[in-house]
Specification:
By secondary structure, the chain is of the alpha+beta class. It has a single domain (about 5-205), classed as Aminopeptidase. Helix content is about 30%, strand content about 30%. It has a seven-stranded mixed β-sheet with strand order 1-2-3-4-5-7-6. α3 packs across α4 (about 120-130).
């Protein structure tokens, strides 16, 4: 039986970086340095989302902020994040907002949390964020050998549109370039609504 937990999605903050590095260490042969994440959090086109397990009673949240994350908070319907010391990060995803196109630059889940719907929950958050930010499509690269991840993306109607030869520097593996149909079409929105409901039913503790 699945043990129910309390979770929430929120923007990544500087204090999350040590936990982010732990997840990276488990997930990727070549890691980004901590300084790269500090720079990314100041990058105007970058948005990083974490899925956090609430393990303690968090203190009252700080006063609400405005700006870059206002639209994201409307999507996930959560208050400002409590200090990360009260939270255990399960995974994270990074998105760059390009011209009319959002691009997933990284996604990772803790080893012990895999195959529990977390990667898919983060993907749904990225798709919702891209649509909220008026991006037409969402794209990504995935290792040619990562058949499991490719199957999840195909479930969300990502199509293979290219191959980046020797893209990954750790082993010179090729990357498959994948992209969604236009996010705003009625056909895609209907597919997304059905997949969202299916995921919420299967993993209710990953939703508000």
């Amino acid at each position: 039986m699945r043990t129910m937990i309390k979770t929430r999605l929120r923007p990544m903050v500087d204090a999350d970086i040590p936990q982010i590095m732990d997840i990276e260490r488990q997930s990727f042969p070549a890691m980004w340095p901590q300084t790269a994440y500090k720079r990314e959090l100041s990058n105007k086109i970058a948005r990083y989302i974490v899925l956090a397990e609430l393990r303690d009673d968090p203190p009252p949240p700080p006063a609400p902020s405005s700006g870059l994350w206002a639209s994201f908070r409307r999507i996930v319907n959560v208050p400002e994040p409590a200090p990360p010391s009260s939270e255990y990060l399960l995974g994270f995803i990074g998105v760059w907002l390009m011209v009319d196109e959002a691009h997933i630059v990284t996604v990772a889940v803790r080893d012990e949390c895999r195959r529990q719907g977390i990667g898919e929950r983060l993907l749904l958050a990225a798709i919702d964020l891209a649509w909220e930010m008026e991006q037409f499509v969402l794209t990504l690269e995935v290792r040619a050998s990562n058949i499991e991840a490719q199957a999840m993306y195909e479930k969300y109607a990502f199509e293979r549109v290219g191959l980046r030869k020797r893209y990954y520097t750790d082993n010179n593996e090729d990357a498959v370039l994948m992209t969604t149909p236009e996010l705003g079409t009625p056909t895609y929105q209907k597919l997304l609504a059905g997949l969202r409901d299916e995921h919420r039913h299967r993993y209710p503790d990953l939703w508000p």
